[in-house]
Amino acid sequence: MTATPYVSFVTYGRNDGYTESYAGRASRAMQSLVTQLERAAIDSEIVFVEWNPPPDRPFLFDQFELPGDRRHVSVRAYIAPPEYHHGHPGAAETGFFATEAANAGIRRARGRFVTPKASDSFFSPDVFKMIARHDLDADCMYRIDRHDIVVDDESMWSLPEDELMAKITSLPSSPHAWIDQSPHWELRDLHTNACGDFTLMSGAYWQYLRGHPRSSVLSLDIDSLVLHAAAGLGVSERRWPESCRVYKPVHGRLHSERLKQQWRPWQRRLDRFLSEKVNDKAAHWARTTFDYPRRKVRGVDSLLGPSIEKNFVYPASRWAKGEKPVPTQPENWGLGDVDLDSRVLCRAAWDTAAP
Are residues 46 and 89 in the same domain? Predict the structure, then answer.
């Protein structure tokens, strides 16, 4: 019988030249995560989902260079082939579907606690000090700030672990700190800013919610919706000290940089009239009811995503008023009925699962 790891980190990607040096960054981030978990003696696993791998390139996980002498960390990779990507609207314009890739990993995670992470993000050492205390509460979700960093010298990824972390923490960074939401949204006070980079929560709640909610390939608001849905089930949010950080190298394809609102003239006129002549709450009602301004992600021109008021604020505000969240994913969420090809990249001493 396989022992249960204390924590699972779920990450995902594909070897498509997403950005310059992406493969090297992702490999170094994986190596760093394994090293930090091992040093902290945390029985853990990392689940990596290779989504829609290009047929003319090697798997991204085949380029991971993992450190030796591991006792506490298992790393498993799953391959989600192209047929599970191409049926989605907009799939011809993007090779990646973050929602489905993340859910495939979350569905297969075995940890008592689970968090998604970006494939090329790095954590400060204090994150692992907190996890290593082994006092996580199954009825709490844990949040930290993401800090964006600009990397001018790509050779830093070849530095030894301690030197690399010293370099990362010395770089100027822009924090994605807690945001005070608009009062007329009537939401719970949750730290949703960049929450997709670290939301550590009981695996049981992730399974109950069936991972992230259903979405298009644009994957809009999925991480924030998870936080508010969990809170609607009674999960409390705890924010760790400022020294607990997730670092994200900045590049031109960050999702937030490619997202733009699409306004029509009548929408601007109505919004201005309601805001000035009535109140902000009336303007919010119109945005929700008529679903505007819609949103477009650069590179996926065939799809217009819903407004943030319709897609996120409306359900989150209902949960804040007492409505119980209902999973929107089907029972086979996360490709649960598919036997995905998998690889064991390294195995911990606690992990007695069959190869």
Answer: yes
